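The instructor's notes for this session suggest beginning with a concrete chain rather than abstract definitions. Hand out the sequence below and ask the class to guess, before any prediction is shown, which regions might be ordered.
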Amino acid sequence: MRKGFSEKSAQYRAVVKDRKALRERGMSRFEVRGLERDKKLIRDLAKRLAANDEKARRLRDELLKGAPPEGETRGGFLRWIRSSPLVGSGINLDREVVRLRKIEL
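After discussion, reveal the predicted structure:
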């Protein structure tokens, strides 16, 4: 528990009771970081997902479509580059090798 909470205080007991009730419902509290302008969006999204109904399931499925697959934390940039529409187009990106010019200053 946070510093400043006395284990015997009413505030401490209320927090413990609230967290226990959340666990019994299969929920938990967590903190996320984001932009100030997204705060309401994230809270609304969390409320909709917490409903755990058919709409929440569809929303969860849509969100997971845009998220990287679990366990794939490396190689994302390479996958992104390879997904370019230019892959396989036959464009030649080789540079011509030329000799350096002498410049008099």
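Then share the key points. Residues 86 and 92 are 11 Å apart (CA to CA). The mean pLDDT is 83.
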